[in-house]
Amino acid sequence: TVWAVGTPGTLIKTINGGNNWEIVATPAQKNVIEYVSISIIGKSNIWICGSYGTIIHSNDAGQSWDNIDVDMLKNKYLQGVNAITTNSIYVVGGSETSDSGVVALTENGGQSWTELIPADNYNKNRWIGCSSYNDNNIIIYGGHSHYMLSIDGGTTWKNDSVPGTGGTGGADINCLKMLNGQTWWGAFDYDYIGITSNSGNTWTKQQSTGPGGMWLL
Q: What are the CA-CA distances from residue 137 to residues 145, 150, 197, 209 (Å)?
């Protein structure tokens, strides 16, 4: 079973490994909303985020949906959602009109939300995604190769970045996956693929083939 989101306001699903796909109805205004990220806990608890502060949630495998309205996220372009547990969900993104970032967290399944304000104005760059290995190891990543890491379930955060990725101020991290607490893979703008095996202390660039100038996911 595989789910995918896209534009405009599109959610599709296959239950036979991709041989056939079906469009799943959602409450979005299809000519306006872009779905950008999806996160699923178990087989039935689904979270989707996108443009204009859109967050929708289903707890019955997409048969019905709730619109989640969060005042602080109105008119935000939400690029990443990560459901750590059924209660703890992170949503990240940025302004529709500037490069500033925003991170919001619910710890009660979406009933209320708080904004996470990182130290040293680290929201100055847009956030693109959120990844986790378990309940404790969480990483939020984004523009200009910057990220912030928590190893205690979000109680404290460490600001960091990946050096030497190219571009002005570092290439954007478009996707970062944690295989465990130490080993992470990252895909960046400007053809950069990076791996760390020591929790981000050092990174090794991987050779990529292609036309050049690619934004990798």
A: 19, 6, 14, 31
Cα–Cα distance, 93 to 30 (Å, whole number): 20
The upper half-sphere exposure of residue 126, i.e. CA atoms within 13 Å in the direction of its Cβ, equals 18
CA 42 to chain centre: 18
CB under 8 Å to 201, separation ≥6 — which residues?
A: none
Cis amide bond preceding 8, omega within 30: yes
Q: Which residues pair with 49 in a beta bridge?
A: 37, 55
Closest CA to 145 of 173, 121, 119: 173
Asked whether the beta carbons of 88 and 82 are under 8 A apart, the reply is no
DSSP calls for 96-110: SSSS-EEEEEESSTT
Task: Flag whether the pTM goes above 0.85.
Answer: yes
Closest CA to 172 of 200, 149, 158, 192: 192
- Measure the CA–CA gap between 144 and 205, rounded to whole angstroms: 16
Measured CA to CA, the distance from residue 26 to residue 62 in angstroms comes to: 8
Residues 161-215: tens digit of each pLDDT: 999 888 778 899 999 999 999 999 999 998 999 999 999 999 999 987 777 778 8
**Residues with Cβ < 8 Å from 30, sequence gap 6 or more?**
8, 9, 10
